[in-house]
Amino acid sequence: MRRFRLPIRFAASGFWPHAPRGLRVRLVVAFLLAAAFGALLTAGLTFHRARAAILDRAEETAVADLRTQLDSLAPDLTLPPTAQDLRGLTRQIDQAGGARAWHASASYRGGEPVAASAGTPPVPDELRRAVQDGGRAVHQRTEHDGRPWLALGMPVAYTDDSGDTGTGKDTGTDADTSADAGSLSGLTVYAVFPLDDDRADIDALVTAAEAGAVPALALALVPALFAARSVLRPVRRLRHGAERIAAGELDTRLDAPGRDELADLTRSFNTMAETLERDAAELRRLEAGARRFAADVAHELRTPLAAMAAVTEVLDEDAASGVLPADTEDAVRLISEEVRALARTVEDLMEVSRFDAKAAPVHREDVDLRTLVTKTLQLRGWAHDERVRADLPEPAPVRVDPRRIDVVLGNLVANALHHGRPPVTVAVRVRGDLVRVTVTDRGPGIPDEALPYVFDRFYKADAARPRSGGSGLGLAIAQENAALNDGILTAANHPDGGAVFTLTLPAAASSPGTT
Fold first, then answer.
1. Residue 93: enclosing H or E segment and its boundaries?
2. Pairing mode, if any, of strands 424-431 and 388-391?
3. What Rg do the C-alpha atoms of the chain give, in angstroms?
4. How crowded is residue 181: how many other Cβ atoms within 10 Å of its Cβ?
5. Are 147 and 196 in contact (CB under 8 A)?
6. What secondary structure letter does DSSP report for 77?
7. How far apart are CA 147 and CA 103, in angstroms?
8. What is the C-alpha to C-alpha distance for residues 459 and 472, in angstroms, rounded to an integer?
9. Among 148, 191, 258, 419, whose CB has the most other CB atoms within 10 angstroms?
């Protein structure tokens, strides 16, 4: 059977946010979407139940009214009826319908329905066949000219031996209780009437649901904001706590009220902070102990090394005079070299301990960096060495500690001569507010895997040669001295081969005079 459908006009007036970034916005949007979905689902279920109740009530009332009319009018009808009798019956039914606006028609023995007026809507064929086949009252919702209608079909049955007629009992459903097939009179009455009033009631229900959707969402915004605030408050505290720990405040602890997941997370955060504080304190203690140990060892070795150095100087003089046997002379020279290397290592350790204790003094002066480079090369005998070249084309004013920059340059040139191949070029260039000194050699360069570690203490790129002429602290000391003068020391490989060490210093405001 074809049934008409009343349109559901729920407006799609919601919005979909474009990738909200803040957690608060996402929580509020999720809460509102959940509230909107719940409201829509509830409204939809309520609408369908209310719509079904309204239509079922209209159908039951219509069937009861039609049965009442037939029980009153059908006994006066003579069987078999003529077309005029059927038209008169339907006219009486239309008049008795009143505000319901019946459009009745009647047929006898399956004939064509006869209506009182020509404007009566046609009876659906499905309804006629259902009445004829089932011998019971049937109703069907349909549409005609864009309007919803309810069509009824009701067979008339004999009620007693006198020939009086009546209607089959109806239960208000599409499968009503049939009259006894033997008591059917063959007369069937059809009635069609519009459901405009019921449709208006359903439309009003939809409109009320639409009108209540916006206030419902507005009211849902309040608990959404409250829920977001209750969730975000501990999250915000955790963020502030993490920032404080990242800033070094390892004694940071947070209150953890409640027993929910966020409270458990806060307690885990406190446990983590406590562990970090304990481990950091232990690391600081071990580091301080290691620094004190290195400084104490270096300090204790200085006195015996000074005595050993004095003895080796005497032995060197004897070895040079040729008074010692050849084997003894070789042993003396080996001991002298090792003592001098050990003395340099002790001095380097003392310098490193001063760096670690933040006790390294800095005495700045306004100088020309070209002068510092020249003096460094002269003091170490490299000024007239063909292996070292100086490229000093323009004044380079800087404000630095000359002694510490001399240590940096000396270590870089010595490292280039020892590990690279000559010629070693020392170049000074001024680039805006910066002055750069580059020390370039022609050797094989630094292995790529060693570049990140060349300034680490005691690091040696060639693990197969752990013994070398240096202490392994020269580049580390050079980097510390550069930092004390607000400079940056970097290492790289030249595209044409060789290592390139670059010392970058801030330029001074004015050029100093040369000395």
1. helix 83-97
2. parallel
3. 53
4. 8
5. yes
6. S
7. 14
8. 6
9. 191
**Per-residue DSSP letter, 76:** G
Alpha helices in 108-190 (DSSP H): 125-134
Strands 434-440 and 397-400: unpaired
What separation, in Å, do the N-terminal and C-terminal C-alpha atoms of the chain show? Answer: 114
Beta strands in 7-146 (DSSP E): 103-108, 114-115, 138-144
Length of the chain: 515
Q: How far apart (Å, rounded) are the C-alpha atoms in residues 122 and 149?
A: 11
User: 214, 36 in Cβ contact below 8 A?
Assistant: no
DSSP H helical ranges for 247-358: 261-321, 326-356
Residues 114/107, Cβ–Cβ less than 8 Å: yes
- Whether the Cβ atoms of residue 441 and residue 451 lie closer than 8 Å to each other: no
DSSP secondary structure of 414-478: HHHHHHS-SPEEEEEEEETTEEEEEEE--SS---TTTGGGTTSTT--S-TT----SS-S-HHHHH
Residue partners of 344: CB distance under 8 A and separation at least 6: 471
Q: At 282, which amino acid appears?
A: E
**pLDDT at 294 exceeding the cut of 90:** no
Work out the pLDDT band at 223, boundaries 50, 70, 90. confident
Distance between CA atoms of residues 100 and 63, nearest Å: 12
- Contact, 203 vs 33, CB < 8 A? no
Contacts of 468 (CB under 8 A, 6+ apart): 418, 460
Tokens of 209: 């649901």
Beta bridge partners of 103: 192
HSE-up of residue 231 (Cα within 13 Å, Cβ side): 14
Per-residue pLDDT tens over the stretch 33-64: 777 777 777 777 777 777 777 777 777 777 87
**Hey, is 15 helix, strand or coil?**
coil
Average pLDDT on 203-217 reads 71
Q: What angle, 0 to 180 degrees and rounded to 10, lies between the N-to-C axes of helices 474-484 and 326-356? A: 30
Whether the bond into 512 is cis, omega within 30 of 0: no
| pLDDT at site 172 | 36
Residues 71, 21: Cα–Cα separation, whole Å = 72
Sign of CA dihedral 26, 29, 35, 38: negative
Give the pair of three-digit tokens for residue 113.
Answer: 């329905």
